Predict the structure.
Amino acid sequence: MLGLMQNQQLLISSLIEFAERHHGEGEIVSRRVEGDIHRYTYKEVAVRSRQVANALDALKLKFSDRVATLAWNGYRHLELYFGVSGTGRVLHTLNPRLHPDQISWIVNHAEDSVLCFDMSFLPIVKAVHGRCPTVKHYVAMCDADKLPADSGIPGLVSYEAWIGAQDSQYQWPSFDENSASSMCYTSGTTGNPKAALYSHRSTMLHAFAGALPDAMAMSARECILPVVPMFHVNAWGIPYGAAMTGAKLVFPGPAMDGKSIFELIESEKVSFAAGVPTVWQMMLAHMQGAGVRFSTLKRTVIGGSACPPAMITAFNDLYGVEVLHAWGMTEMSPLGTVCTLKNKHLDMAPKDKMQVRLKQGRGVFGVDMKIVDGSGEELPWDGKTYGDLLVKGPWIISDYFKGEGGSPLVDGWFPTGDVATIDADGYMQITDRSKDVIKSGGEWISSIDVENIAMAHPAVAMAACIGMKHPKWDERPIIAVVKKPGSEVTRNELIAFYEGKTAKWQIPDDVVFVEGIPLGGTGKMQKTKLREMLKDYKLPDA
Ligand code: AMP
């Protein structure tokens, strides 16, 4: 017997319809590429998303055709989130930090039909458009009078002229909720990038889960600033969750420096912000230098790479901001775990609570996890045994777009490439990317643990630990360090700083001071590049 409930497909268009009807006055504030602040409401997002939909129909795009964006976090990008997916086309967010060669490769692989871009990225579009034969329409996300006369890009139109000519009435179509809604290519540190192709159903379920109190706790009382880019895994699903709950949204646009982000948090009374550790590093440095404090920020979700304990302490102890450590992947839409405490943790001593907060967190409903050994045997949840982390759930990929080489799944589970422990309470802690794990004398050393200790030193701005070949131990860790401007620390002082903080054999053999650590398009340290940089390095006793 089937239930007698209405069989309504879970579609992204329903989010903006809901936000218009129930939170029409809800505010969206954006710092624009032009530098000024733009503000409007969910009502206007809804109207303009419908104009986007009509504009796409006018181009005669087919169902599932790809519409690419090269854009910062901003209101026009938000309209494309709803307007493109809502019509059944696929929003393909391109990462502008990639090399033009990678961007054109990705555009061709995705077979994008339309490319909408912020004017900051005009040079990239100029560099790639000749190599992207599938793209038939270029839209500059600007006012009509800002369109350059001599762009050299055939048929270039301004976004405002493009949608301005369209009717604001539009009936969102209904279709199978499993239809593709958006896509995002992985950072592709090895080989060519691969695309996760999200569906309406996966995006909607992810939005429900992401808004839960033990995940990102989105609500109509929150003012949310996603520093995490809309070009990377849909800004962790925040645009959808915000529309679902009526939260105020604040978009930083291109101004991603610590000072600009801090000023926006203050002027817009942001209560919750989300981003990767490198962004917060810049903001904390600005705040400490300028001697300023938050007046409204309550929580921040930090993920994308391991959040150093020193950062959690700085937010919590200096500014009274709760840090929620979170973990996920492009292939997971991206939410996997969020580190919110359980009742049993509330009365713990601060240092014990900190031990919990440092972990990447527990699985949100919808994500199942397990750790396995080399032969695929499941390992215990004891907080000590580490193994390869596998996940499954309705917003985790089953295949890559045009996946060559078959399904990535192993018995229905997606291998994350991360190595982790899980404790008896279900809190997962990442030890390393499997390819970054350091093997010394048959034992594994967590590069994240080694980095976290260095990051707690007051003179260290950034630290990356890699393994170096060693004749006796196979590999030994060294730490590459960027010093804070105006601060000093010597190799021996930093090595001495490890004493008593970790097992002796886990202390790095050497410190290499560098000007900068190579960062990838999403702010993650690129250890392959760092290894290349240090290819002539020799260990002191090697
Ligand atoms: P991406 O698909 O580019 O978002 O990268 C996903 C990878 O980033 C994961 O597989 C992890 O290796 C890493 N990652 C994400 N969040 C965290 C975190 N909180 N701690 C450590 N690594 C993380």
User: Anything to note?
Assistant: The domain at 9-22+39-197 is CATH 3.40.50.12780 (Rossmann fold). Residues 186-187, 233, 303-306, 325-330, 334, 360, 416-418, 430, 433, 522 surround adenosine monophosphate (CB under 6 Å).
